[in-house]
Amino acid sequence: MTIRFIAASRLPTPWATFTMHGFEDEATGKDHVALTLGDVSSDTPVLGRVHSECLTGDALFSMRCDCGYQLQEALKRIAGEGRGVLLYLRQEGRGIGLLNKIRAYHLQDEGADTVEANERLGFGADMRRYDLCVPMLDHLGVQALRLMTNNPRKVDALTRDGVNVTERVALTTGLNPHNEGYLSTKAGKLGHMMALDDFTPASGVDIERKG
Ligand SMILES: Nc1nc2c(ncn2[C@@H]2O[C@H](COP(=O)(O)OP(=O)(O)OP(=O)(O)O)[C@@H](O)[C@H]2O)c(=O)[nH]1
Ligand SMILES: [Zn+2]
């Protein structure tokens, strides 16, 4: 693992002014970012989010997934505590890249679910790695995380890689009519610990609850 810290700067957002830390992965040429708020290097576990890039959800307002909603909610919660860390990892499309994600979305438009679409393209359902988090967190002095995620495989992978995850904090937000099926597949096939009833709807969206 060849993660190199490059530079840090202020990053004002609607919720807080974070410090943005830029890292380069010399092996892949990808760049990754960490946002921190407050003193994250004391030994009290830090509220954290390990977020995988989703250009469509994070930047283009896509309602197909819950990524953009989770990103905003995570930053708001960190701002609420005045302390926390968000790692923004450039592993778009669960690691298959943007163009393959668009291919996968095309298959989903024709009826495949998110897992079947990846498999039809010859990929595993989830190709992400989390080992790069260790040098990033070490650089920031983060010793333990209260991790905002619904994904138990993410907790397991981080723990295996040596990250001390003391608590999993649910992050169920952004339900809307376009991502209901996707969220159900994540819960059913990818093992995410969440039920649609737990979700807060995306703002301005009226979800009809069944049962
Ligand atoms: N291949 C593929 N990737 C997707 C799709 N929808 C979202 N993604 C990517 O999935 C990643 C986010 O993963 P999720 O499974 O939504 O969530 P997670 O990170 O595992 O779990 P949480 O921590 O609970 O958010 C991002 O890299 C997205 O670009 C899809 O239909 N196909
Ligand atoms: Zn997404």
Supply database-style keywords.
alpha/beta; 211 residues; GTP cyclohydrolase-2; binds zinc ion; binds guanosine-5'-triphosphate; 7 helices; two-stranded parallel sheet
Describe what you observe in this structure:
This protein has 211 residues and is an alpha/beta fold. It has 7 helices and 9 strands, in the order ββββααβαααβαββαβ. The protein has a 7-stranded mixed β-sheet with strand order 1-2-3-5-4-6-7, sandwiched between helices. A two-stranded parallel sheet has the order 8-9. Helix 3 (98-109) packs across helix 4. The site of guanosine-5'-triphosphate has 22 residues, from helix 2, helix 3 and helix 4.
Give helix % range: 25-40%
Mean pLDDT: 93
Order of helices and strands: EEEEHHEHHHEHEEHE
Distance between the termini: 49 Å
Structural class: alpha/beta
Bound molecules: guanosine-5'-triphosphate, zinc ion
Q: Describe the biggest sheet?
A: 7 strands, mixed
* Number of H- or I-type helical stretches: 7
What gross morphology would you assign? globular
Percent in strands: 25-35%
For the secondary structure, the number of strands is 9
**What are the segments in which pLDDT stays under 50 over at least 5 consecutive residues?**
none
Q: Strand sequence of the main sheet, in spatial order?
A: 1-2-3-5-4-6-7
What Rg do the Cα atoms give? 17 Å
